[in-house]
Design a protein that fits this description.
heterodimer; A: about 250 residues; 8 strands; B: 10 helices; globular
């Protein structure tokens, strides 16, 4: 058919068809390799037109995208299509797991404790933020590649960082942390090759317990440090760290 | 970076030391990202690799946001649509089929479709908008033309657009950057919609050849 349908490749690639026309043409595409090939080429062409209009998005957009992606379930691959391997999207079989079961269990327990303490103690500020933060914390702790790294000896309290490369985030967990001196606060830092960046202030709850999602992305190649700073925190550390956790270790 | 040495028990860390940054997640977009690299990233994203997702974003966010903004115009809505696009890429990465085109083309097609969906659903609500009135809002082509010069790619695209006939160029620009259907374009340009369809096709074919696109 369809000398007529064949001419629709351009309008299709430019999304200039109505919904019904588009559906009809997509059915045609399944049966017409020539049109399918032409559409491929014309879509690659329009992609070039699109790229020529580039303009950087506002920086905070990424945080919103990331937060939404974290709570969005991914579709599994279509199985049995050509040579597409099945492995994509399947992980977490026993062999693939890098976390000892014990840690996973501990993480689960911690999540449970956390969701209670986080909300009850108001650790995380406003409730809507708390929900999201608790989700992120849970996502890190339950990640298949979660790794728990203890602080360098000699620091204050018992501190560890749980990091998931896959999630790109880390959670600072401490126990027995003394309250910060009056008019001072603890501040976390993520330190990479280009230096430290602020990763959030720490509020110490009863018995010096702290669970704090580090602000910003973490790859697992950094160090995490905590210093004592003025109320409100600082943009750069002004004192020697009281806790250092080397994620590379 | 010095932190407690093997035997050391003190906690020390040198704040100020700077070494050349290596491949950081937040690196400024490494531009012409090879399609191979994008395809590898998409395969990782399909497995839930968030770092790969961050890197993919770094590489294509400006192209996606730029295109979406051009079609949608409204900055807040452009951000929303860009967010939809990336969450969609995250969700459907496992469905990307390299047999059907490159990763870049898949991503930009998804971005364009979302942008067009957004303007059409808005317009469905305000159907009675005077189509002819839009002609006076300035041709999208003129804007593209103004923005060129900045990059080689823009210049190349600009030259390729210039190589089209007027009707081809207006059809392509109104469809792609303007987000219009062929019927709307027919109305705007005062030609039959069959003509618009064929001009879209032969215009894009000429662009393809001019840009040396391979797919």
């Amino acid at each position: 058919m369809s000398a007529d349908l064949h001419t629709l490749t351009g309008a299709y690639a430019a999304h200039a068809l109505s919904d019904t026309e588009r559906q009809a043409f997509e059915r045609h595409l399944e049966a017409c390799p020539a049109c399918a090939q032409e559409v491929r080429e014309l879509e690659a062409t329009t992609a070039r037109l699109g790229a020529a209009a580039d303009s950087p998005p506002p920086p905070e957009l990424w945080d919103r995208i990331r937060a939404e992606a974290l709570v969005t379930r991914q579709l599994p691959p279509v199985v049995g299509r050509g040579e597409r391997p099945r492995r994509a999207g399947r992980r977490g079989t026993a062999a693939g797991r890098r976390v000892p079961l014990l840690l996973a269990a501990a993480a689960a327990l911690l999540v449970a404790v956390l969701s209670v303490t986080a909300l009850n103690l108001g650790l995380l500020g406003r409730a809507d933020r708390a929900d999201r933060t608790a989700d992120l914390v849970a996502a890190v702790l339950a990640a298949p590649d979660a790794r728990r790294v203890a602080a360098q000896p000699g620091g204050t309290g018992q501190a560890t960082v749980v990091v998931s490369r896959q999630r790109g985030r880390a959670v600072f967990v401490a126990d027995g942390l003394p309250p910060a001196p009056a008019d001072r606060t603890y501040e976390l830092w993520v330190v990479n090759r280009s230096g430290p960046r602020p990763a959030g202030l720490v509020e110490v709850a009863g018995e010096g317990r702290v669970t704090r999602l580090l602000d910003g992305p973490v790859t697992g190649n950094e160090q995490v440090a905590m210093t004592v700073e003025r109320q409100g925190g600082a943009a750069r550390p002004t004192s020697e760290p009281v806790v250092v956790v080397d994620l590379k270790a | 970076m010095t932190i407690g040495t093997e035997q050391g028990t003190s906690v020390a860390l040198t704040w100020t030391r700077r070494e050349p940054p290596h491949r950081p997640a937040q690196a400024p977009a490494a531009r012409p990202a090879g399609d191979d690299a994008l395809e590898r990233l998409l395969a990782l994203v399909a497995r839930g690799d968030e770092q790969a997702f961050a890197e993919l974003y770094q590489r294509v966010a400006a192209a996606v946001f730029g295109l979406v903004s051009k079609v949608v115009r409204n900055p807040a809505q452009s951000e929303e649509v860009t967010q939809e696009v990336f969450v969609e890429l995250w969700r459907t990465a496992a469905r990307f089929d390299p047999g059907r085109g490159t990763a870049r083309s898949w991503i930009m097609t998804c971005a364009h479709r979302r942008a067009v969906d957004r303007v059409r659903s808005a317009e469905r609500a305000a159907r009675r908008d005077d189509l002819a009135g839009r002609r006076d809002q300035g041709r999208p082509y003129d804007e593209v033309a103004e923005q060129v010069e900045t990059t080689l790619e823009r210049e190349r695209v600009r030259r390729s657009l210039d190589a089209l006939t007027d009707l081809q160029r207006e059809a392509v620009v109104l469809a792609y950057y303007g987000g219009h259907t062929h019927r709307e374009i027919a109305e705007l340009l005062g030609v039959p919609s069959g003509t618009v369809k064929t001009r879209l096709r032969d215009g894009l074919i000429r662009l393809r050849d001019h840009l040396g696109v391979d797919a």
